[in-house]
Design a protein that fits this description.
3 domains; flat; alpha/beta
């Protein structure tokens, strides 16, 4: 058999860091409508052209390809004309898009040519050929949640996580505290070493005392009821029992309340995409590290509703007001069905309560200032959460003076905490607060 050898042509995709590329594209893949003030909740910015431009930016400024590879392809060492290099770049981007499809990160129409031809001939329909949409898959969103969790925990100096630890010690399975004498009601997690040492110590003291009595002529025989001297074996008495203490580890039911009012993407800053990233990281953390915990997500805007966790990466803001009371009401009803050691609401918002759902179903709105009617009704719902034993922790992305006072009052009423943070530090605050949560005291 004859073999034909050809010159090896390296493929730039061999050097592509797909994980890093997905991280660089996360803002686009989890688009919240930032940059489109008239956004009404559609995926108008998730077009193939937008994906093309984002990949181009990631290639040259994101570090997803080694610098020497880029230099060989498009630098001074590159061979070919400028047009040939442009064609090579377009081909590379198309190959990356195909790899993203093959990896299951995005889906797109399988055959675009007929649609392009129809639109070019004036066949009607909205948009241009470049506005063909792509869809983000569940696999991509799950991966982005994992990456967000890893990056957030890494930046906080935590390489691994376990279950919720509290300051209180109880007789559990994991033994990290000093042993203590057994008391009625403790789990029989016997510390054998400490128990035997107690028995030996007690037996030694009794033997010494018996010998002293014999030496003074005060000791009697066993038949006379005098203490006997044991020369072999160890008798363990009830008072010798010692049990090992473990850190009390709680179970937790959490509702994540996410503000999707219009202010979350206004004022020159995208606050909603970082909030979604934190929500996805928290969901991944609970699913992988705290399987006994539960997490639910509630969006609040003009009204409020629960959304499936798998849809967190796809939710968007809209032209909405902020109905905080309705969000708390939905969250409370969810948590009242949970039977956990700890029940809490994590509320991420940037604005003041500005809407209420009235008994007839209509929405009362007032965007100007802190409306006493809106605030009063919202605090009534906070009081209902407090009576149900539900803690509210608020992560505020704004620092308006009156709003700060309102948030602190909410925290005080529900034994929760108020954090005033930024989109850049939000994730560390939320995750560290969740993992360091302290629960009930054991006496």
């Amino acid at each position: 058999m004859k073999y034909k050898y050809t010159k090896y042509a390296p493929n730039p995709l061999d050097d592509l860091d797909m994980d890093e590329l997905m991280s660089k594209l996360s803002d686009l893949l989890m688009s919240s409508g930032f940059g489109n003030p008239r956004d009404t909740g559609d995926d108008s910015d998730q077009t193939m052209q937008a994906l093309h431009d984002a990949i181009l930016e990631a290639l040259f400024n994101g570090g997803v390809l080694p610098e020497d590879t880029l230099e060989k392809m498009f630098g001074d060492q590159a061979e070919g004309s400028e047009q040939e290099m442009r064609d090579q770049l377009e081909q590379l981007i198309q190959q990356i898009i195909e790899r993203m499809k093959e990896s299951g990160y995005i889906t797109a129409p399988p055959d675009l040519d007929p649609e392009k031809a129809r639109r070019a001939q004036g066949g009607g329909g909205d948009g241009e050929p470049g506005e063909v949409k792509f869809e983000v898959t569940d696999k991509a969103l799950d991966f982005l949640g994992y990456r967000a969790l890893r990056d957030l925990l890494g930046s906080s100096g935590h390489s691994s996580t376990g279950r919720h630890d509290t300051r209180d010690l109880s007789t559990g399975i994991e033994t990290s505290g000093a042993p203590k004498p057994y008391e009625f009601g403790d789990v029989m997690n016997i510390d054998a070493t400490a128990t035997i040492l107690n028995a030996v110590k007690r037996a030694s003291e009794e033997n010494i005392e018996a010998r002293l009595h014999q030496g003074s002529g005060e000791a009697g025989s066993d038949a006379d009821g005098a203490p006997a001297v044991h020369t072999s074996g160890i008798d363990i008495d009830y008072s010798d029992l010692m049990v090992a203490q473990g850190e009390y580890q709680s179970s937790c039911a959490t509702v994540l309340m996410l503000d999707c009012s219009h202010s979350m993407i206004l004022y020159g800053e995208d606050r909603f995409t970082p909030a979604k990233r934190v929500a996805m990281a928290l969901s991944h953390l609970i699913r992988t590290q705290y399987p006994g915990d539960t997490l639910h997500a509630v969006l609040f805007h003009d009204s409020a509703e629960e959304v499936p966790l798998r849809e967190l990466g796809r939710v968007r803001v809209g032209p909405y007001y902020t109905n905080t009371r309705e969000g708390l009401r939905v969250a409370r009803r969810i948590l009242e069905r949970q039977r956990k050691d700890m029940r809490q609401i994590i509320m991420i918002t940037d604005g003041k309560p500005s809407a209420l759902t009235q008994p007839d179903g209509s929405i009362y709105k007032n965007p100007f200032g802190l409306d006493p009617f809106v605030i009063g009704e919202t605090l009534s719902e906070v009081s209902a959460c407090a009576k149900a034993g539900i803690m509210i922790n608020t992560f505020m992305l704004a620092r308006d003076y009156d709003l700060v006072a309102f948030v602190r009052r909410v925290a005080q009423m529900c034994r929760g905490k108020a954090y005033f943070t930024t989109p850049y530090t939000l994730g560390e605050y939320v995750l560290m607060d969740y993992m360091d949560k302290k629960t009930k005291t054991i006496h």
